[in-house]
Fold each of these.
Amino acid sequence: MNTSNTDPILLEIPESFESERLLIRAPLWEDGAAINEAIKESIEQLRLWMPWAQNIPTLEESTSEIRRARLKFLERKDLRLLLVLKKTGQLVGASGLHRIDWQSRKFEIGYWLRTAFEKQGYMTEAVHAITNYAIEELQANRIEIRCDSRNSRSAQLARRAGFTLEGMLRNDACDIDGSLRSTMIFSKIRGAEFS
C-alpha cells in the first residue's frame, strides 16, 4: 500500500481476515438482527461503558446503524469490524479502527464483547489480529486504545495485547450520568512496538 496522501476511498482494504477462532469482517447490510440480538443479551454490561447502549435498540435502529457502519467502511471514514466465531457463525462482539487519521496513519481500536463470550480470550485474540491488520494492511504508524480509567478489564486487555500506557486525560469527558471521568490512553507505535 502506498502511504502517500492517497485519497482513502481509493485504498484497497481487505474486508475480512481471521484469527485462530474468529472471522473478523466488515459489517454487511444484513447484520442488523445479529447485532440487535447481541446488544439485547449484553445490555447490562454495555450500559456501564458505552454511551450508545443506554437503551435497547429496536431491530430497525440496529439495522440502520449497521448499514451506516457499512457505508463508513466503504468510504474509509471508520472501519467497524464484527467478530464472528468461525465454527458456528455466531456474532461474539464488535471492534474496529476508529478516529482515523490517514495522513499520519493513526487508528484507535474500540471494542465490546457479547456477555456470553466474556473471559474466554476472544477480545484479546481479536485485538492482536486487528493490530496486525492495521500494521500490515493499513501501514499504521500509531494505534491507540482508550478506555474509562475505571474500566479495569479494558485496561488489562490493552496491557495483555502489548499496548503501553501513555497517560491519563483527567476529567476529560462526562460519564453517562453527567459526572466527569478520566480516560486512559494506551498505544503501540511503529519503530518501538512494531516495525
Amino acid sequence: MTAPAWLDNVSFNADGLIPAIAQDKQSGRVLMMAWMNAEALTLTAERKEAIYFSRSRSRLWHKGETSGHTQQVHDIYLDCDADVIILTVTQIGGIACHTGRESCFYRRLDTDSDTPTWESVDPVLKDPNDIYNTSTATETHTATPETTHAKAHSDTHSSDHTAILTELDAVLAERKAADPDSSYVASLYAKGLNKILEKVGEESVESIIAAKDLAANKDDSDARHELIYETADVWFHSLVAISWFDIPSDAVLNELARRFGLSGIEEKAARSKG
C-alpha cells in the first residue's frame, strides 16, 4: 500500500507510533488514548472508523472488534508539533472504556482531601462481563488486543481476594454442566482435561516470554502489564484445572499458608519426608 503524501507531515516516534486521543464530537469529552502507526492512521482516515495499533500484540486493533463499541471518526486533527493526533468521534454504544464506562478517564484526583486519593466519578453503563461475553472479571483470554487491554487494566473494586476466589470456585463448578457455547470456561470443560492442561502450558509459556520482555525493558509499563495479565492467565487456567478434580482454591491457599514462615530448605525437607 502506497503511503499517502499527508503522512509526511506526521512525526511518528522512534517506534513508528503516534498517540491518538479520541474525543466525543458532541460533548468534547476525552474518551480514550491509544497508539497508531502509519497504517492504522491511514486506514482510520480511509474508513472513517478508529483503528489503533496494539503495542502488546504488535498488530492493528479495530476499536470495537470485540465489544461492538466502534468509533465513527468525523475529523482528524494534528497538533502543532505534529506528534499527537486527536480524533473527533461518535462512540457507538456510548461506551469507550473496557470497564463499561463512557470514558477511560473516569478517575478524578480528590485534591480537597488532606490525603488526595483517586475516586471513580463515572457510572458503569454496562457490565464488562456482558461486553466481552465473560462470566467473571478473570474469565477472559487473549483473543484480541481489545480483550488484552481489558485484562491489563481490569477494574476490580473488591479488596477481599479470598472472597473473589470463593466466588470463582462457585462459577467454575457451575460451568462444568453449562452449555459449551455459553462461556469460555464451559467450552474448555467440554473439550476435556487435556485441553485445559494445554491452556495451562500455553499461558505458562506466554508468562515466561512476558517476563523476559520485562527483563529487557524494565521501565516499559506495557511490558509490566503484559507480565501481570499473563500471570493472571496462568493462575486462572490452573484453577480451572484443579476445579476439574473438585479441588477448591482454598486448598492451595492453605498449602501456601502452611509453607509461610518455613525456609525454602525446611519446606523442601518436609516435602521429601512426606
Amino acid sequence: MDAKLAGGADRARALSLFVAVVEGESFSAAGRALDLSPSAVSRAIDRIEARLGVRLLLRSTRALSLTAEGQAYLQTARRILADLDDAEQQIADQGAPRGRLRVSAALSHGRLCVVPLLGEFAALYPHILVDIALTDTLVDVAAGQADVAIRFGPLADSTLTIRKLGETGRVIVASPAYLARHGTPRRPEDLHSHNCLNFNFRRAEPIWPFRADGRDFSLCVKGNIEANNGETLGQLAANGVGVARVGAFSVVGEIAAGRLIPILEAYNPGDVELIHAVFVGGANTPARVRVFVDFLAARLR
C-alpha cells in the first residue's frame, strides 16, 4: 500500500479509537468495542499524543478526563468521521438517504409529538436508522453529538442551520377536583392564593404573562413543586396538585378528556414558543438529515 494511503488509514483508525475511548470512558470499554486489549488501546493513545506533542487525556485510577486539547481533538475527530461516513454512504447508495441519524428532542415534545411520527418516517425511508435521544439537556450539534436537535424558544447565535418546524401556545390549566377544592381563579391576581407549579430550568422564571384591556403585564407566582418538562407539570395538575402553565401540545389529551380545564383564557396574551430544527447545513448536508427535517417541517406545522 502507498505510504500516504497507509498513513491516512492509520489516522482514521486513530480517530475512531480516540472517540471510542472517550465515549466508553475507559480503555477497557473501547477495547471491547474495537476487539483490542486495554493495553493496546493505551499504547495507541500514547502514539497519538506523541505525534501531536500534547496531552489529550488525563488518566487516574478511577476515570479519564479530557484536556482542552483533547476536547478540541474530539470535536474534530467526530466531524471527520461523520464526513467519512457520509461520503462512503453517498457513494454506495448514489445519494439515496441511508445511515444512522442521531436526533435529540425534548422529553415531552419528543414523546408526544416526534416519536409518534417515526413509524411513518421509517416506512418512507427504510434505510435510515433513526437514533433518537429524549433529553432536556442541550446537546452540542456543532461538536457532532447529534445530527439534528429540536429546540424550543430563542436560539443563541451560531453557525448552525436553523429551520422552523412550528410553534406552540401556552395554556394555564387545573383539574376539576383542584378547582372544586380551592375555587376557580377569575382574575390573574387570584393566582397568589393558589399552588402554581413551575419549571426548574434556568431560563424559566416563575413569572406568568397576561393581557387585560390591551395591556400586557406579568405576575410572580409561587408553588411547592417544580419540574423540567411540561408533561410532568400537566400530570401533576391533572392529579389535583396545583395550577400549571404549560405548552398546549403537552396537555391537549388531558383537556380533551376533561381531566384538565383551561383557566384565565380571557387573559391569555397569546404568547407562543417557536420550535426549530438545528443542524449542520451546507452543500454537504447528508441526505438523511435533509429528508428528516423536511418531514418534520411538513408534519409538525
Amino acid sequence: MKKNVKGLFFAIFAIALTACNSNDDGVLAGIEIPGITITDDIDCCSAEEALQVYRFLQTVKIVPELTTEIDGKYNVYAYTKTGTFHTGYNEIYFVATKKSTGNYIKNFELTNLTPLMHMVKMDMYHSTPVGSAAASFNDGYLAVKRSWVSFLMNTSEAGSWTLSYDAQVLGSKGGIEKKDIIVNALPEGQVWLKSFKIGSDAYFLSLVNPIDFKTGTNEIRAYVSKKSEKATNPYQIATEIFTVDIDPRMPDMGNHTSPDNTSLTKQSDGSYAGIINLTMTGLWRIHLTVRNAEGTVVAGGDDQSDGYSSLFWDVTI
C-alpha cells in the first residue's frame, strides 16, 4: 500500500501513542492500517484518528444490509456489537469512507433513523423507540457516529421489520430506504423493555446494555420514550422528567433484594442513570416504580412484597 512520507510519519507516531493500549494484541505492530491509504486530505482522519477508529471497529460487527454507496464516491457502513439486532435496546454505529482511499471521513451526517414493523395479519404498521440523530460519542472516535433503536418485538410470522436512514457525506446525499432486517428474540426469561401508560399516552422503558452487568456495583442506564401520535413515526425520547426507583430481587432465591441501589434520574443526554448492586450471579428481576416530577407514582410500584410487579426488567448475570 502506498503512502506519502508525511502519512508514514503520522502512522508511526500514532502507533507509538497507542502502544500501551490494553487492546493491543500485536496485530497493529506494523504501520499499515488495512484498506486505508493515509493522505493529506482535510476531509479525512489523520493517521492517529484512523488508527483509533480502526481499533474501535474491531470491537463491533458490520450489518451488511445497512451498508450503502453514495454518488459512487463514498461508502456508509453500519455496525452493532454482534452484527445483528435483538428485542430491546441496540446501539448502532455508522462510519463513512472515501472509496478512493478507504480513509474514514470525520464530518458526515446520519439522520432520520426509522425502524418500521409491518404487522402482517392486521396489515398495520408501527415504529419503536429510537435515539437522537447519530453523533460522535467520544473525542477519539470523531469519525464514528452512534445512535440506538429499541425494538418492541422480534421478527416472526406475525410481523417483519425494516430500517431506513438518511446520510449526507461531504455534500452528497443518500441513505437506506426500508431495508429488511431481522430482529432476534432475547434468551428465554430476559425482559429489557417495558411499557406503561399515563392517561392516553404510552411510554417505553429501554434498559441499556444489561449484558455488561457484573456482580457488585453497576451503573444502570435507561431511556424513557414516548409513543408518537402517528404510530409509524419513530418514538422519541420523552421530554417529561421522571424518577425511576429500582428494587432488584432474585425470584429463584426467595426474592431477596440487595443494598445500596439508587434511583435512575434524568441526565443531560436524555438518558436516566442510577446505581444497581447485584450481589450474586443468576436471574434478577428489577422492579420499577416511576414517579413524575412532583414525586407522584405514575407506574409500577405494585405487589412488590411477593416478588411480582407489573413493571420490571429481567436480567441474568
